[in-house]
């Protein structure tokens, strides 16, 4: 093994130069290695640093060699790096500080670029006890600290994560309206049914259909139909306000709203507001058979799940209520009631009529 530089000499000064005065090639390779190399004696004194490390720590080799590591870099005192270094020196076992588990331990910076602030390197650090063969005369064993710059890897991983997140978002968002798509609805429905099962709470669903939308497209054209869908979706977003409530485009001119922890009365209240607010949009619809303005029909349902299969049951109930609203003349809310509960439907309908809201009828 090539002897290392004794303390307080330039880090790359050879102890056994070749005939032409150049350092021996193993030492030259170590000096020019494209990774940081620091060698410490048993007391923590620096006995060697290479060019890569010197350039990125902003200190000269002559200044560093002979200094104690904690004197050269006071911010390391008490750090996890120093704890692992001490353990490796005592046990003779190597250690690795991965960039994925630890913040950068050493104050090393990217070579300065004009106009850019200094940035700390992302680092993976290997602590390698060199053993008896590398011991300096009269000194304890040496320890090699190797620092690898993993900044490019971290940036690539971050870019990949961003791309994956973007693809994940695109796969679940309707590009026309910006609300969730059918896939988002299905996945959210499954997760909310499981959550309601655990908590024993009701899960509500509104199915919303723009009345006579095909006639709208035929009369005004598809670009106008797209604008109408966006306008209605924007309005629905304003009504569906709670963080866990989920608005999605179910298909064509249909939208769905999942309302976690909401009993039927609460679902009906949101449904009434949706019907009323769409009317207030005052979007012309001369081809409608219901009104000269855009209107919606809404089906409402709510249940306390007893099994995963209740996801299908909830959709079926809300869909039946929606078709009942269409059959009853459209531009209204229709709630699904279990047969045992339908004796209370008249009171619910009367309450809506007295409030000058849309008609509410049971299935």
Index terms:
363 residues; alpha+beta; six-stranded mixed sheet; five-stranded antiparallel sheet; 11 strands; 40% helix; disordered N terminus; disordered C terminus
Protein model, in words:
With 363 residues, the chain is an alpha+beta fold. 40% of the residues lie in helices and 18% in strands. It has helices at residues 25-31, 51-57, 61-64, 69-72, 80-91, 151-170, 182-199, 213-220, 222-239, 264-281, 310-327, 345-354; strands at residues 36-40, 46-49, 95-97, 123-131, 142-149, 203-210, 246-251, 254-260, 296-303, 333-335, 360-362. The strands form 2 sheets. The chain has a 6-stranded mixed β-sheet, sandwiched between helices. The longest helix has 20 residues, at 151-170. The protein starts with 24 loop residues before the first helix and ends with a strand. Residues 1-15 and 344-363 have low confidence and may be disordered.
Residue-averaged pLDDT: 85
General form: elongated
Query: In this structure, how is the largest beta sheet organized?
Result: 6 strands, mixed
The percentage of residues in β strands lies in 15-25%
| Strand arrangement, major sheet | 7-8-6-9-10-11
Supply the number of helical segments: 12
Give the beta-strand count. Answer: 11
Regions with pLDDT < 50 over 5+ consecutive residues?
1-15, 344-363
Q: Element order, helices and strands? A: HEEHHHHEEEHHEHHEEHEHEHE
- By secondary-structure content and strand pairing, the structural class works out as alpha+beta
Terminal residue distance: 89 Å
The share of residues in helices is 25-40%
Radius of gyration: 35 Å
